[in-house]
Amino acid sequence: MSDLDQHVTNSEYVTVSVGGQLFGLPIGRVQDVFMLNQMTCVPLAPDDIAGIINLRGRIITAIDLRRRLGMPGGEREPSMAVGIECAGESYGLIIDAVGEVLKLGAETAEPVPVNLDDQLKRVSSGVHRLETGLLVILDIDQLLDLKMTEMAA
Amino acid sequence: MDELLRDFLTETHESLDTVDVELVRFEQEPNNAEILANIFRLVHTIKGTCGFLGLPRLAALAHAAESLMGKFRDGMPVTETAVSLILSTLDRIKEILDALEKQQSEPDGTDADLIERLDTMSQTVAAGSPPAQTHGSLAYQVLERPLKPGEASLDELERAFRETPGPATPRPAKSEPKSEPLPESKVANHSIRVSVDTLEHLMTMVSELVLTRNQLMELSRHQTETEFKVPLQRLSHVTAELQEGVMKTRMQPIGNAWQKLPRLVRDLSSELGKQIELEMLGAETELDRQVLDIIKDPLTHMVRNSADHGIETAAERRARGKPERATIRLTARHEGGHIIVEVSDDGRGLDTAKIAAKALASGLATEADLDKMSDTQIQRFIFAAGMSTADTITNISGRGVGMDVVQKNIDQIGGIIDVKSVPGHGAAFTIKIPLTLAIVSALIVEAAGERFAMPQVAVMELVRVRPGHEHRIERIKNTPILRLRNKLLPLIHLRKLLRLGDADDREPESGFVVVTQIGQESFGIVVDRVFHTEEIVVKPMASKLRHIQAFSGNTILGDGAVIMILDPNGIAASFGSVRAAGLGIEAISEDEKAISTRDKTSLLIFRAGSSAQRAVPLSLVTRLEEVDVRSIEVAGDRYLLQYRGHLMPLIRPGDCVRLKEKGSQPLLVFSDGERSMALMVDEIVDIVEEDFDIEVADERPGILGSAIVKGEATDIIDIGHYLPIAFADWFGGRHGRTHEKTQRHLLLVDDSAFFRNMLLPVLQAAGFRVTAAANGFEARDLIRSGKVFDIVVTDLDMPGMDGLALAKAVRADRDIPVIALSSMTTPEMIERVRRAGFNDFVAKFDRQGLIAAIKEQADAATSQAA
Description:
The complex is a heterodimer of chains A (153) and B (866).
Chain A: H1 2-9, E1 12-18, E2 21-26, E3 30-35, E4 39-40, E5 49-55, E6 58-64, H2 65-69, E7 80-86, E8 89-95, E9 97-103, E10 109-110, H3 118-121, E11 124-129, E12 134-138, H4 140-143, H5 146-152
Parallel strand pairs in A: 2-12, 6-8
Antiparallel strand pairs in A: 1-2, 1-9, 3-7, 4-5, 5-6, 7-8, 10-11, 11-12
Chain B: H1 3-28, H2 33-53, H3 56-73, H4 80-103, H5 112-125, H6 139-144, H7 152-163, H8 183-190, H9 196-221, H10 229-249, E1 251-253, H11 255-258, H12 261-272, E2 276-281, E3 286-288, H13 289-310, H14 314-319, E4 326-335, E5 338-345, H15 352-361, H16 367-372, H17 375-379, H18 403-412, E6 416-422, E7 426-434, E8 439-447, E9 450-455, E10 459-465, E11 473-476, E12 479-484, E13 487-493, H19 494-497, E14 511-518, E15 521-527, E16 529-537, E17 551-556, E18 562-566, H20 568-581, H21 590-599, E19 601-607, E20 613-617, E21 623-628, E22 632-635, E23 638-643, E24 646-651, E25 664-672, E26 675-680, E27 683-690, E28 696-697, E29 703-709, E30 712-717, H22 719-726, E31 740-742, E32 744-749, H23 753-765, E33 768-773, H24 776-784, E34 791-795, H25 803-813, E35 818-822, H26 827-835, E36 840-843, H27 847-865
Parallel strand pairs in B: 2-4, 9-18, 13-15, 20-30, 24-26, 32-33, 32-34, 34-35, 35-36
Antiparallel strand pairs in B: 1-3, 4-5, 5-7, 6-7, 8-9, 8-16, 10-14, 11-12, 12-13, 14-15, 17-18, 19-20, 19-27, 21-25, 22-23, 23-24, 25-26, 28-29, 29-30, 31-33
Helix pairs in contact in B: 1-2, 1-4, 1-12, 2-3, 3-4, 3-5, 4-5, 9-10, 12-13, 13-18, 24-25
């Protein structure tokens, strides 16, 4: 359970909800949360890339987390995104809503359930039992891995 | 690495490159004392610095080479063996330098072999003078000797050395009383070395600033009177100037990328047993160093290819009646925001049959495909991977990494490469590359509600298409096609290519066709709307999107929106597959197109002052602009516009053209070099390509004549009339025009495209058929190709082969009257021109005089013939 131990030690998470599920993003990786206003779609792009956005003069790639994670939910106007950086590039992860920041310890941590669907299992690094439900911790590097994106697309 | 050592390495590398070039020159001109002095000085500097830094191997080598060159200076005959020996010494020095760069110390080893040969050579002829004392490996002994009176520059070096923590006590090497001061002391006074990273960072920041400025300007456009207006204007100008300044720091002459070529060609010549001369024109043409870096290898590769595959052996050349000495010519020039680099040779040309066979063998095309292709299309296969037509794989080229790599590099910077080849006469590769990668001019288009930027470089023209009109989209089994000037232009809808909109959406029948040319292939991209042209700052695509061929990058527009930049090369690629899958319609035949563009003129049709159509050759127009009327300033009876950091005069073509009271004012902008002027027009109607005859040579000022364009009588505007109104000295000190005539065939030679285009209609209006050539070589080749010209009108001052040389070349071949054009009309000049065998001499801005002179010569020729 070394994976688990690792994220237990630095354990503040920004919680976001995507398709009705609660996810946790390590707070150290989250740069900001912003509202989407003008997004440009990129023709011929992989399905889970929603488009590109001008964020204060920088062009960032917007990833539709719902599609990326295979979460249910009908079409809706994307409105909110979490800004993160990975390998020198900036991304916006489109989410449904942002929740509070939680400090979580080992006592609630669980490994990823073996029966979780592959798409989600690949990008999760653990689960926390919360009173309100289960919080799935996302591994951002896995989430943005190019090869994974292609496979998913 | 030690700062001092790094500087030494950089500088020595530069010096060695120069020495390479100079030595090759020296071998050809052994009596040129100036070249020798230059080489001597550079080698001496290297030697001095090496001794000083405690680099015994380098110092010894440089010293031995210097001694031999000293003998040359004293009158020893320059032999090829001796030059080769010095060149190999330089190679050894480079090897040691490379090792030094990696290990920070000289590698072990001995150079006794070379030094001995060098010494032997200098002694064989060194009758009296004993060789200068050897040090070389004795550099440490040098340290023990008492200090000789050194030169100021050496002292400076010494001080620099003392201030730097170094390994040894500084000691200048043996100083030569004759030697000139070391270059660094001179250079240090007005230049400093700045790391490339610093410049890159600066450029990035400036690009950001430009974007922000654009955004601010866009915002302020929506506000009427705000106090921000004036400071914003200032900010805008400062930004423009800053941008220009930073760009300048990144500019380097293309000659830097050519430096190694003379040596390369020399080595290849002896290796292959061919006699090859390398001509380099326009080495001073500047371009962004990032671009320079990328084209360096492709150029080297192409020159190598020419020498290896293109040029025949001396025996073969003799058998074909060509001079034994072959020429590879490299030219570079600016052309409208781009650099055109050409590598041409007078060798055997591309072997189309062999290329076709190879393409077939490597499965790039089927026999049926090849049958349908023209020679030019087949020749383009050389840009495909794995094509090398050399019979034998030599160690020079033909290793399978070939033109495909070249094309990839060129593609990478949004450039375009093309090849022209005449069997038996040689091949020419033309590369069109942007001046800089950071900022490009792009046309903003829209398809299915999404905007895209199309780099201006690829846009040949815009055609409006509507059902039922002259230009309409026609279909053969669903494949859209446009009839354009009696040719079929394959079309693709951008929305279909990019899979925009709903799948069952019908392709719209009206919109705009962006006519694009990649190499010799033309095709049209159908878009719904066309907006303006905008200077955009290219930002690289995110890594996750980079695989999409259709885009080359993205950018933020002035209104803050992010848009994708279309990649014409990528579109051409996907288009090719669409075409192959569809109908296989041949694009407009390249050969025919080449001819038709020569004889046809693209005209921009507009209205100004009346409902009558007016036209101006499109090639003269630099840009079309629409500006807010309120931004136009009135000074007396002159109209001015703040434009790209300068005040640009706006000219009304005729008194009845009035400034509108509000709204936007369409402008035709004409630029030449730094100067711009604009014509105020009421409406821009269309762009047509017409084989037009000017019917009435008009007496009205500012009008060249009338022509029937699209079935309507159209006044052709004489821009030459308006330019001096804007700038009295527009014609001063500029050169270059070409003329042709309709009955009499004129060859107009001028290096300035602007004046060529200016004179073309003037001369056509005077009743001549005109062919234009951009330089002396082109003109000479045209005449040699057997085209019949009645008169040659040439600019005197041109790069490469100037007017005088051209006149000589023309006269050597046949008796054609040659008229000189020059902006300098001093008596000496006239005398020189007469002696060179010109029939007449006309001042450049004297159009009436020119026409009179041409008529006179033409009549004289006719009466002679009769």
